[in-house]
Amino acid sequence: MTLLTVVRDVCSAVGVVMPTSVFSNITANRTMQEMLALANEMAQRIAYDTRDWTKLKATCTLPGNGAFVPPPPDPTSVWTGTSAFDLPANYKRMLLTSNVWKISSQYQPMRFIPDTDTWLTRRVNSATGSWGEWTIIGGQIHIFPIMAVNDSAYFAYLDKNCINLLSGGYGDEFINDGDTFSLDERVLKLGMIWQWKAHKGSPYQEDLNTYSDALAYAMAHDSPAPILTGRPTTRSSGGWYDAHS
Q1: Which of 134, 63, 124 is nearest to 94 (CA)?
Q2: Exposed, middle or buried by CB within 10 Å (0-12, 13-18, 19+), for 143?
Q3: Do 194 and 209 reside in the same domain of the chain?
């Protein structure tokens, strides 16, 4: 469903006039201004705050370029290279279970240092763990020690761009009637209905319950179910037993 279709369904449910366009003459249409703001807020709330949606998961690789300048055995050799990398332009946040891994340490992730003072203290003292360390400061991911030219780090993160733009590409807000939500549009519609009613002081508990159920089902079906292998079993009064035994 496009944004226009979602908004028309919401308007029908909450009892306001259904538009022919959300954006046409929006500066003079308070209702569509509110609908657009609500659509953006609810889309981002669903995309960012509920789970790590598989459709929005992305990965990033950071190439190392560390080297000695000048090369050994010159006694003035100094290890130089990039230690701070810009986060991807579409980065929203790390996944709830994200680690940063290095190609050179495939069985153990790097240590995350969440406290900036701890990070700075360890850098002043040139302290580091066996597998390396990382933190995020100022929109950059910092890695220590500097990675060699043949090494690299990689991690998974949540993509902030939850809107498919009619004009092409992706964004984090609706900008056209024909834009679509990357996730379940029905969940977006139901979320907008209960939140609109809540904003207007109307009874909304039943609508909130309907939204919550739909969101729970979408979340449950977002990850693939495990495939069970083995021989079939049959239930008896004493429990389960192997049908072939």
Answers
A1: 134
A2: buried
A3: yes
Strand ranges for 41-187 from DSSP E: 57-63, 67-69, 78-80, 84-86, 91-94, 101-102, 111-112, 133-137, 140-144, 152-159, 163-164, 170-171, 180-181
Structural domain contains residue 172: no
Residue 27 belongs to what domain range? 3-53+183-219
pTM assigned to the model: 0.86
Does 149 share its domain with 70?
yes
151 with 76, same domain: the answer is yes
**Gap between the Cα atoms of 93 and 114, Å rounded:** 14
* Residues 6-40 pLDDT 10s: 999 999 999 999 999 999 999 999 999 999 999 99
